[in-house]
Amino acid sequence: MGRLLIEDTDGARRALLVASTLLGRHWRCDARLEHPSVPLYWLEVRWSGAYWAWRCLGAEDHTRGKGPTDQRGWRRLGADDEVTLPLAGVRVRMADETPPQVVLQDLDTNRWIDGDARFEVLALTQEGPHALGDDGEPSEPVLSDGAELHHRGRRLRVHVPEGQADTKLGSLSLEAGPVEMDFDLSIPAVVLSGKGGELRLTGSLVRTLALYAAAHVHAGCPGGWLSNTQAHAWAQHLGAASDAPPERLNWERARLRSRLLEAGLGGVDTFFERQREAGVWFHRMRRMPRVSGLPELPGPDGLHLPLGLTPDPLE
User: Cys bridge to 277: 21, 120, 157, 306, which one at CB 3.0-4.6 A?
Assistant: First the structure.
C-alpha cells in the first residue's frame, strides 16, 4: 500500500494513499494540513497505472518540486522526489511506492482503516449488497469506488483502485438548493448536506449555528428572527458558557461565516441577514434549512417578534 511521509511544523507522519489522495486544509482532504498558509486543496497524489504522480491544486507559485510536467500538470513522485511548500514549512516524500489496494475510510473521523483493509472490506460487504471475489479483490463492478457503507453505526467509504480515479473536491453550496443540517451537540458537530455533497463542522461554533437553525423551526420565532439577547437566552440551553455576554454573538456569527467559507461552503457571504426594529438588531439565516438533531428548547417567552418585522419565511 502506497504511503506518503509528510513533515510540517507539527512533526512527521505517514499518510495512506488511495487511487486519488488530496492534501490541504479542507475537511474533505485525505491528509489534513492545519497551517494557514496551506491552501484548502494543495496537492493531489494519484496512481497513474505504473507509478505515483502529483499535481498542484493551489499555491502553485510557492510549491516546489522537481521533474518534468506532462500536458495535464502531473509530475512523477518517486522515492527520491519531494514536494515542498516553504511558506508553511511542509515537505512531502514517498515512504512506500506500492500500488493502491482496496481500503476503507471512516467518514465520521476522516481516518483510514489500516492494516490489511481488504479482509475487513470483505467481512463488511458480505453482510450487505456488495461482494468481493474469493481472493479479496473486486469481482464484478459490484463494489464501486466511492461507495458508502453503513456498518454498526459507522459510515464507511470504499476506495477501489482505478486507472484514472475522479478528483473528489467539495462543492456544497447554499445557492444550489435546500441544505439539510443534522446536529449532534454532544460533540458538538453538524453535517450539512445537499446537492453537490456534504460538509462536516465541529467545535463551539456549531452551537451558534444551532441557535439560528432552531429559530427557523421553532413555533415561537416566526421567520427565524432572533436578537442577541433572545439568542443568548437559548445559548445556555445548548451548552454555551453562562458568563458570555449577548454581544459575543456578533463576533461568533462573523467567525462562523469565515469557518464555513474556509471549509468550502459556497454562498456564505449572505448567510445571515438582519433588520433593525425599535433600536434593536434582529438576525436570521437567509435560507430555510431542514434541521434535525436539536433538543427541545423553551417556549416562546421573550422570543417573539417586534411588530414591524415580517414573519414570512424565506424560500
Answer: 306
The CATH number covering residue 29 comes to: 2.60.200.20
pTM for the model stands at 0.53
Tally of structural domains, the chain: 3
CB < 8 Å & 24+ apart, contacts of 140-145 = 143/102, 145/19
The residue among 156, 155, 160, 112 whose CA lies nearest residue 16 is 112
Q: Alpha-carbon distance 180 to 194, whole Å?
A: 6
* All residues at 6 or more sequence positions from 47 whose CB lies less than 8 Å from its CB, including other chains: 2, 17, 19, 20, 53, 99, 100, 161, 165
Question: Tell me: the pLDDT tens digits for 203-218?
Answer: 888 989 999 998 888 8
Low-confidence ranges of the chain (pLDDT < 50): 127-141, 300, 302-315
* 141 in the same domain as 86: no
Same domain, 183 and 285: yes
What gap in Å lies between CA 198 and CA 180, rounded to an integer? Answer: 9
Q: Does 27 lie in the same domain as 66?
A: yes
Q: How many residues does this entry show for the chain?
A: 315
Which residue type does 164 have? Q
Q: Give the range of the structural domain holding residue 91, as residue numbers without chain letter.
A: 3-96
